[in-house]
Amino acid sequence: MLDMLKRIIARREDGTEEKDQGFTLIELLVVIVIVGILAAIAIPIFLNQRQKAVDSGIESDLKALATIEETLYTDTQAYSSTKTELEDEGFKASEGNKIEVAVSPDGYCIKGENDAGSDDKFFIYDSNDGGLKVTDALVECSITDIGSYTDVTAAASGGGGGE
């Protein structure tokens, strides 16, 4: 009888050791739910950071192009909206940015956009109205005799704003 009890106890101990070697279905489900919640929090934050980075790239390109325009004006007493002349001065738009320039004898306006950027932001650099503006609505340039806008975005964009 004692032998039999020892065998039963030994089997029971063996059975519990085998059960403790893995995770239960409930434990796995809890981990999956926690990972899902963390992903639901992290993904929108990550996407928002990407939009902010694209927006910063547009701002950087507009400021770099404004610096080039001022340099050209200092050298030639005229602003330029020709793509070739601006590229010769070192301007190269960041990837995906569409940059347009319009000039007059009194100043210049630069508009920038990117499809991967924020949908509700417009970027304009107005030389006569205080420089860079980021607005929720498209604003027009303060220069009254402004010419038509010229797209100065490089065909094979890449690199940084003006460097």
Largest sheet: 5 strands, antiparallel
Provide the helix percentage: 40-55%
Overall geometry? rod-shaped
The beta-strand count equals: 5
Unreliable residue runs: 156-163
The sequence of SSEs as H and E is HHHEEEEE
- Oligomeric organization of the protein chains: single chain
Estimated structural class: alpha+beta
Number of helices: 3
Structural Rg: 31 Å
Strand content: 15-25%
| Widest sheet: strand ordering | 4-3-2-1-5
Q: Count the domains.
A: 1
Mean pLDDT: 81
Q: First CA to last CA: what distance?
A: 90 Å
Task: Output the keywords.
rod-shaped; five-stranded antiparallel beta sheet
Describe the structure.
The chain has about 160 residues and is of the alpha+beta class. The protein has one domain. The chain is built from three helices and five strands. It has a five-stranded antiparallel beta sheet, with helices on one face. Strand 1 and strand 2 form a beta hairpin. The radius of gyration is 31 Å and the shape is rod-shaped. About 20% of the residues are buried.
